[in-house]
Amino acid sequence: MPRTIATIEARMTSSRLPGKVLLPAGGKPLLAHLVHRLRAVPSLDAIVLATTAKPTDDPLAAFAAEQGIACFRGSEDDVMERVIGAAASVGAETVVEITGDCPLIDPQIVEQVIRLFLNNDCAYASNAHIRGYPDGMDVQVFRLESLRRSAAMTSDPTEHEHVTLHIRRHPELFRPIHLLPPHELDWPDLGLTLDEPADYRLIKTLVEYFGAENPLFSCREIIALLRSRPDLVAINSDVKRKGDA
User: Fold this and answer.
1) Of 3.90.550.10, 3.20.20.70, 3.90.1010.10, 3.40.50.150, which CATH number belongs to 4-233?
2) Residues 8-21: pLDDT tens digits?
């Protein structure tokens, strides 16, 4: 089996919520919750934090060391090259791209996307390009070789900022396959991603609601709770999400 590595893109200088990935919830940083969840994915061989070389991201390098995961530091703007460097630094063949603003990622969904990719003739697998799952459950899987080929084909700054944008724009070159949610998990307008202060309030509330007894609470459990608690859904329902293409 190919060596399958999760890359986590993270930096401290978010324009809307600086330092967001290290904000606390349930007694530890949100990024620690994400790492714990990825460690529960059976098909993952390792995790590497892909951050920038800027001094402002020194705390993230220190976090990676504390967590015992690899850390790669590269360009702030050319995120594509940063992910390539991060994946190559740990000998990845298959890359599972995760962003640091998805601290509630469901390990079962990550595993499903990995298996979908490995068991089909495709160059790219995702549950996020065709929206269905809540925002914040986003998983993308591809070969490192494919990302290198994509990077060599484009000099568009936007395509280098958004790692798989060129791949997604060219399905004729990179055959995609998409994981769609079962009916009970289909809630594309639900925001479980960490963009603004209101998102932090909701995510922190969810982490503390499920508590230490159930730290790997699933997307299914989140949705079941939120279907019964419209007051929680309202916490971040006014947040406007940025698109990437």
Assistant:
1) 3.90.550.10
2) 999 999 888 999 99
